[in-house]
Amino acid sequence: MKTLFRSLVTATLLAAPALTASAQAPSSAAPATAADTARILLNPTLINAVNTQSFEQFRETVRPLVARMAGKKVVALGEGTHGTAEFYKLRFWLTRILMEEHGFTQVALENTYGGALRVDAALHQRPAPALKPLMQKHLLSIWQNQETAEMLTWMQAYNRQHRRQQVSLTGIDAMFGSDDALLVQEGLSKQNPALRPHIEQLLKSTAFQDAMWLQMNSSSFKFDRKAWLSNGLAGYDAAEQLLKALPTARLPRATRETLDLTLQNSRMVFDYPYQVKFHKRESSRDSLFAAMTQLLVRQPGSKVVVWSHDAHLSRQSMDPTDNNGGGTGAFLERMFPGQYFVLATSTAYGTFAATPQAFVSPVSPMAAYPLPAPKAGSWEISLAQVSSPAFFFNTHQLGPQDAQRPQRLVGQTPTSTEQYGNYQLSKAYDALLFLRTTTAATPL
């Protein structure tokens, strides 16, 4: 089994190079061959120029792309960095089109389910509460920006105008679990008194683990493996017992369904110690992402738009030896054969928002950093030569140019700009949206 520290940081997407083996790029990526580094000149017929000046102009130029997404059950919209303003804005516009025109009702972030649910409540209330404090308390800092707030504000307005067809924010991650536990307490505390010890244990275990994740950003942090295992196993068991009791609880149907999702997610929060203890292996964060997505669309007719990093949503892992190396898309393709569509987003130059903290949390500070030029032989360096500054293309039409070559996969830290995964694009994504120059997302 890999080192325990690495098994802990499997929970961190693309952590800083100094901290985890999965992030020691470019050395962790497979070495590029001579064929991989040859400059690609894309066939002009593959290029679909995109107008990003306004929503209306954007909608007209992406109609062929949306047509391929419209009939799917799960549409995944990736991000090549965790802090690019244009990636947030254009994914919002795509999500809006899918919701307004094609029956999608959920957008799922790389965020714990309970935290997203707290923010979602504000999208349905009248009068509408202020979003900023809720976002800062319940969402990871990668979502705490003006661009995400713009989408949530639109969702508030949409819900005021469409009472029968509401749209919702949700989450597929399982990191900071206190929001899950508090929702369970609110929903079940007045039920069978025998459930209260399990609720109290769940609250205790999530508080312990959340505090540990926050402390991991401190140089003085000392990991207590025994306490981590004991706490996590107790939390997992508490969530399990409450899930078993849920069918007999006297609750409205909608409340029961929400609590079921909350408890499923809460159990995932403790999957890391559970897998270490009982299966002697690391937990797969990507399989948990997929499992949570599957739960979100288990009702007939349900459709979801997923927002996460390109590396996660890809059908291929950037590092097959790392259980946080990506490949959520492979799990989703098996769960929904022919019903999964993934769009990657990528850029070459400009700025991006990042945090110096290796473990991203709701309190991680975000600031703008320069985006270095892509390395020679990468997809980005070739795509930047296309005359159009913004365009998309169907990866399955690349033909002989679809060679395996480096794709930049920037995480949440400033140093993660040197991180690459080797991809044959058609095996990783259905389409790619490229913007030559981009800017950092604007923190709230």
Walkthrough of the structure:
This protein has about 450 residues and is of the alpha/beta class. It folds into two domains: about 5-170 and about 285-440, 3-Layer(aba) Sandwich (EreA/ChaN-like  fold), CATH 3.40.1660.10; about 180-270, no CATH class. Helix content is about 40%, strand content about 15%. It has helices spanning about 5-10, 55-60, 65-70, 85-100, 115-120, 130-140, 145-160, 180-190, 195-215, 225-245, 255-270, 270-280, 285-295, 310-315, 330-335, 380-385, 425-430, and strands spanning about 50, 75-80, 105-110, 170-175, 305-310, 340-355, 365-370, 390-395, 405-410, 420-425, 430-440. The longest helix has 21 residues, at about 225-245. Keywords: Signal. It comes from Hymenobacter rigui. This is Erythromycin esterase family protein.
Write the layout of secondary structure elements.
Blueprint: H1 4-9, E1 48-49, H2 55-61, H3 63-69, E2 74-79, H4 85-102, E3 106-112, H5 113-121, H6 131-138, H7 146-161, E4 168-173, H8 178-188, H9 196-215, H10 225-245, H11 253-269, H12 271-279, H13 285-296, E5 304-309, H14 310-313, H15 328-335, E6 340-354, E7 367-371, H16 379-383, E8 390-394, E9 405-408, E10 420-423, H17 425-428, E11 431-438
Parallel strand pairs: 2-5, 2-6, 3-4, 3-5, 6-11
Antiparallel strand pairs: 1-8, 6-7, 8-11, 9-10
